[in-house]
Design a protein that fits this description.
The chain is α/β, with parallel strands linked by helices. The protein is built from ten helices and seven strands. A five-stranded parallel sheet has the order 1-7-6-2-3. A two-stranded antiparallel sheet has the order 4-5.
């Protein structure tokens, strides 16, 4: 039994096959083959100037999407580096739910590139927090590692515990848009408002799906006196049905 457990453990840490395509890994390759590791699909213009939603039609310039025209989100701008699919999706899953934290370097590269490209004027980074019970179960907050990478890339401060999740919400993964918004309503609280007052805050998370979580965080950061709140994620969920106005 112990031998089986050790075999499984090392199979996770040092897999013999690519976690994306299933092909055997070569010398120097870990978790993903070289081809898959370089196959991430980056998001690019045109997209919404506020929420960063990509548009299907390429024959247009960046502009506000229909949803943001009706109601601007509580943050100033959101951007994601890649589409949540393929190797990026697999890397995030392995990073969050299995003991392969070394993937934070691969995912952190997206955050470093995005923070320098989109948010060079930010002066404080903060991660979307986990509830203390979820943190105890998982053992780490994946978004905090990513926020640390943004902080180092921009040479700015990092708020480690100034923003807290005070409500142990259900996982968002199986909820629709309305359920996600209701699930996180009132879930966050700024416990150190002095850290955020008058600051240009960069809020960091791994995936942007409907935006319910980061919008709720942005609301409380604004209420605490943040001058500006922008959002950066590694990836964004994107489907062919995404449309502009």
């Amino acid at each position: 039994m112990i031998k089986h457990a050790l075999t499984r453990f090392f199979g996770i840490l040092y897999p013999a096959f690519c976690g994306c395509c299933g092909c055997g890994l070569g010398p120097g390759e870990r978790f993903f083959c070289t081809t898959c590791a370089g196959s991430a699909e980056y998001l690019s213009s045109p997209f919404c100037t506020a929420c960063g939603r990509p548009f299907v039609s390429r024959a247009t310039a960046d502009h506000l999407c229909h949803e943001c025209m009706k109601k601007h989100p509580p943050y100033d701008m959101a951007r994601a580096q890649a589409i949540y699919k393929g190797v990026v999706k697999e890397a995030i899953h392995l990073y969050k739910y299995r003991p392969v934290r070394s993937l934070k370097g691969y995912l952190g590269d997206f955050i470093e590139e995005g923070s320098q490209k989109w948010f060079p004027d930010a002066n404080l980074a903060v991660a979307v927090p986990l509830h203390k019970m979820r943190l105890r179960q998982r053992g780490f907050n994946q978004s905090l590692f990513l926020a640390q990478r943004a902080s180092r890339a921009l040479g700015i401060g990092l708020s480690v515990d100034g923003l807290a999740r005070v409500k142990n919400t259900r996982p968002q993964v199986d909820l629709d848009r309305g359920e996600r918004e209701a699930n996180v309503r009132g879930a966050f609280k700024v416990v150190k408002p002095e850290e955020f007052k008058g600051r240009n805050v960069l809020l960091v998370d791994d995936v942007y799906t409907t935006g319910a979580t980061v919008k709720e965080c942005a609301k409380v950061l604004r209420s605490a006196g943040a001058d500006k709140v922008c959002v950066l994620t590694v990836a964004r969920v994107f489907s062919d049905s995404t449309e502009g106005p």
